[in-house]
Write a structure and sequence with these properties.
Layout (H helix, E strand, L loop, with lengths): L1 H35 L3 H39 L3 H37 L8 H14 L2 H17 L4 H26 L5 H33 L9 H6 L1 H34 L3 H36 L3 H38 L6 H15 L2 H15 L5 H24 L6 H22 L7 H37 L3 H27 L3 H11 L1
C-alpha cells in the first residue's frame, strides 16, 4: 500500500511540474513576443535554438528513455553483489564518457559548420540576418552537451524511481531564460534607444539564458544523483566504446532513431520552408505551436500516460474486450475535450493570441500572422490528441513498428504539402505550412487505425465507428454552441475595446467562453452523454 501511495505521489508531483513547465514555457514565449515580436531576430532566435534542441530530442531524450533506463534497470536487478555494483559503476562511467565525447564532437562540428547550416533555413539575400543567426546558433550549440549530461542524470534518477528533481528542471530552465531576457537585455543595450538593436540584444540575452538554463538543469540534479550512492567518473574512450552496457544502449537506440528522426524532421523542414517564405513566419508558427502544446500538455499527454499501464495490463492478460472498451472510452474523452476547444479557439483565436502575446514588439501584424497559423494548427488538435491515445494501444502490445511507420507516412504527407504550398501559393503567412501539419496528423491517425485492424483480437470496427460517430456528434453540438457565443462575442468586444490587454481581450474571451461552455454542457445533458459521467468518476478517483 505504501509503495502504491509513493508511486501515486511521484506521479502527481511529476504531473504538477510538467504543467508548471508548460505554463512557464508559454510565459517564455510571451517574453519572446514582448521583446522580439515577429521580427527577423525572433526568426533568428527560433532557428538557432531549434538546431541544438532538435539534436537533444533526437539523441539525448531518445537514448535515455528507450535505451539507457532499461539497460540500467537490468543492471540494478542483478547488481546486489560487490561485483555487480562495480559493473554498474563502470557502465555509468562509460556512458557519461560516451555521451560527453559524442556530443562535444557534434557541437564542435556544428559550430564550425554553422554558417552553412543556417543558410538551409534562411533567405541568403539577408546577410545581416544570416550573421546574427550564426552568432546565436554558436552561442546555443553547447546546450546539446549540458542537456545530454542532464538527461543522463535524469536516467539514473528515474531508474531508481526518483522523478521530482528531473520534473522540476524544465521549470528552472524556463525561469532562467525569462529572467536572463529581462535582466541582460537592458545591460546589453545600455542607453541605446534603437528598437532594432534592442531586439537584437534581446535575442542574444535569451540565447545566454538558454545555455545557462541547460547548465543549471544538469547541476541541479547532480546532488540528487550522488545521494543515490551511484558514483561515476570519466574513463578512457576504449572502455567507453567496448563496455557491454554502452554497446547494449547503442544497439537499442539505433532502430528507434529512424522513426524519431522522421517525427523531428517535420520541424526542421517546416522551419526551413517558413524561413524562406518571409520575415516573421518562423516565429509566428512557433508562437502558435506553443499555444497548441499547452492545450495538449494539460489533457492529452496526461490521459495518454494514465491509460498506458492499464492497457498494458489488459493486453498481458489478453482481456481484449476490456482493452477495446478502454480504448473507445479514451478516444471519446479526447474528442469531448479537444473538439469543443477547437471550435472555441477558432471563434476566439484573436482574443487568445492578443491576451497571451500582444505587447511591446508584438504588433497587430504579429497577431495577424500568428492567428492565421493558429487557426490551421488548431484544426488538427483532435487528431494529434487521438494519436496520443492510439499509439499507447500499440506500445501496450509491444508493437513499436506500427506507430513508427505511421509517423513516417505523416512526415511524408507534411513535407509534400508544405513544399507544394510554398511553391504554388506562398501568401506571405505560415497558413499553408500549419495546415500541412494538421493534414499530416490526420493521415497519421488514419494509418494508426489501419494498422490497428491487423490485430485480430480487437474489435477495430467498433473503435473506429464509435470514435467517428461520437466526434461527429460533438462537431454538431459545438457548432450549435458557437451560435450564441458568436453573438455574445460580437456584443462584448466593443464594450471593452481600448481598456488594456487584460480587460480588452481577457474579459470578452472569458464571457464568450462561459456562454459557449454553458450551452455546451446543457446540450450534453440533454443528449445524456455517458462520457461526461465517466470523466466525473475518473476525476473523483
Amino acid at each position: 500500500m505504501s509503495k502504491t501511495k509513493s508511486l501515486l505521489s511521484a506521479g502527481l508531483s511529476l504531473s504538477f511540474f510538467t504543467l508548471c513547465s508548460r505554463i512557464l514555457g508559454l510565459v517564455r514565449e510571451m517574453t519572446k513576443a514582448a521583446f522580439l515580436g515577429t521580427s527577423k531576430y525572433a526568426d533568428a532566435f527560433g532557428i538557432a535554438f531549434m538546431i541544438p534542441n532538435l539534436l537533444r530530442r533526437l539523441f539525448a531524450e531518445n537514448a535515455i528513455s528507450v535505451a539507457f533506463i532499461p539497460t540500467f534497470k537490468g543492471y540494478l536487478e542483478d547488481g546486489e553483489s560487490d561485483d555487480g555494483k562495480k559493473t554498474i559503476k563502470e557502465f555509468l562511467s562509460a556512458t557519461l564518457t560516451l555521451i560527453t565525447f559524442l556530443t562535444t564532437c557534434v557541437v564542435l562540428a556544428g559550430i564550425l559548420l554553422t554558417p552553412l547550416i543556417v543558410k538551409i533555413f534562411l533567405d541568403n539575400s539577408d546577410s545581416a540576418l544570416l550573421h546574427e543567426t550564426t552568432i546565436l546558433t554558436r552561442v546555443m550549440f553547447p546546450y546539446l552537451v549540458v542537456i545530454s549530461i542532464a538527461a543522463f542524470f535524469q536516467g539514473i534518477l528515474n531508474g531508481v524511481k526518483i522523478f521530482s528533481p528531473s520534473g522540476f528542471t524544465p521549470v528552472l530552465f524556463n525561469s532562467i531564460v525569462i529572467a536572463a531576457t529581462y535582466i541582460l537585455t537592458p545591460i546589453l543595450t545600455g542607453s541605446i534607444e534603437d528598437s532594432e538593436i534592442k531586439a537584437q540584444m534581446a535575442a542574444r540575452a535569451m540565447s545566454i539564458g538558454v545555455i545557462s538554463g541547460g547548465c543549471i538543469q544538469a547541476l541541479f540534479q547532480l546532488p540528487f544523483v550522488l545521494k543515490t550512492g551511484w558514483t561515476f567518473h570519466f574513463t578512457t574512450l576504449k572502455k567507453a566504446f567496448t563496455n557491454p552496457g554502452t554497446r547494449q544502449v547503442m544497439k537499442l537506440i539505433v532502430p528507434t532513431i529512424i522513426g524519431m528522426a522522421c517525427y523531428q524532421l517535420n520541424d526542421v523542414v517546416s522551419t526551413a520552408l517558413a524561413g524562406k517564405a518571409g520575415t516573421g513566419i518562423v516565429s509566428s508558427l512557433q508562437y502558435s505551436l506553443r499555444l497548441q502544446e499547452l492545450i495538449l500538455g494539460i489533457f492529452a499527454v496526461s490521459i495518454g500516460t494514465v491509460i498506458l499501464p492499464d492497457l498494458s495490463g489488459l493486453a498481458k492478460k489478453q482481456l481484449w474486450e476490456d482493452f477495446n472498451k478502454m480504448l473507445v472510452q479514451a478516444a471519446k474523452i479526447m474528442a469531448l475535450i479537444s473538439i469543443p476547444i477547437t471550435f472555441l479557439s477558432l471563434l476566439c483565436g484573436e482574443e487568445i493570441i492578443s491576451l497571451v502575446y500582444k505587447s511591446k514588439k508584438f504588433s497587430d501584424e504579429s497577431v495577424r500572422l500568428t492567428l492565421v497559423a493558429f487557426r490551421m494548427h488548431i484544426a488538427g488538435l483532435f487528431f494529434i490528441a487521438l494519436n496520443r491515445i492510439i499509439s499507447p494501444a500499440f506500445y501496450a502490445q509491444g508493437n513499436t513498428k506500427s506507430p513508427t511507420v505511421a509517423g513516417i507516412i505523416g512526415f511524408a504527407v507534411n513535407i509534400a504539402l508544405a513544399f507544394a504550398v510554398i511553391i504554388l501559393h506562398n501568401d506571405g503567412t505560415g497558413a499553408g505550412i500549419a495546415l500541412a501539419l494538421s493534414v499530416a496528423s490526420f493521415t497519421n491517425t488514419v494509418a494508426l487505425f489501419v494498422f490497428l485492424k491487423k490485430n485480430q483480437s480487437l474489435d477495430v470496427k467498433s473503435v473506429t465507428l464509435g470514435t467517428i460517430f461520437y466526434a461527429v456528434k460533438l462537431v454538431v453540438l459545438s457548432l450549435i454552441a458557437c451560435v450564441p457565443a458568436f453573438f455574445v462575442r460580437k456584443a462584448v468586444l466593443p464594450i471593452f475595446e481600448g481598456h488594456g490587454r487584460l480587460l480588452g481581450y481577457g474579459l470578452p474571451f472569458a464571457i464568450t467562453a462561459i456562454c459557449y461552455g454553458v450551452v455546451g454542457v446543457v446540450l450534453l445533458v440533454i443528449t445524456k452523454d455517458e462520457i461526461v459521467k465517466v470523466i466525473l468518476r475518473k476525476v473523483r478517483k
